# Entry
Amino acid sequence: MTSSKEIRAKIWTRLHDVAKPDTRFHLNFAEVIPDFKGSDAATDQLVTDPAYQNSRFAFITPDNCLADLRRRMIEAGKPFVMSTYGIYRGFLFLDPAKVPPEAALYASWLDGMEHFGEPITLADISRRGRFDYMVTGASAVSSNGVRFGKGHGFFDLEWGMFTSLGLADEQTPVHAVVHDVQVVEEQLQPSETDILVDKIFTPSSTHVIQRRAKRPSGVKWPLLTPKQIDDTPPLQELRRLQGLA
# Structure
């Protein structure tokens, strides 16, 4: 069976032809999930989806390919939570009502999120209620919905924290935005931490996934190192909330 490492290496080679360089990491795909040619076309399809249209409180990853989606959500008045880089500084909450109309584009960029977004704890998110929609970028997504990130497991951790607190579950719509070259046609076996997505939006098409396996639930504490916990404030908060610290 093809390993996730081999899949990433194969996809990253293809990505060089369509990816847009990051201002900090250039084309280092181990550190950034890039924007790509046609991401606006993929977003065009996503915003027509009922899950997006009906969403009231979403979680959006900080991937470059989702900047256009974040802009559209701001302009549509849809609040959302986004993680900071590496989750090192936790999460940011973006209230569109606090963004001037002319600043929506800037606010959708990571530097703009730092300006307009407000730090939000897991406890504060819980008080706002469950996420009714989640969108992520990816290094690759298989035809049966198995998502691969950069290899650091950040989205897996975020999902684990959110499901631990009942903020997301098996029924929460999870969509991925990727380039066509990032879709892996073979069926892959998900690991115990892999998050299966429901739909994949690319510049040319929408893939609807018939999920045949359940998503994981909760944080897999035995898989984490002390350094990972020390470097991730929300994990420390979750331990306190669960009485583990």
Summary: The CA atoms of residues 71 and 105 lie 5 Å apart. The chain has one domain: 4-219. The domain at 4-219 is CATH 3.40.50.10420 (Rossmann fold). The chain has a mean pLDDT of 94.
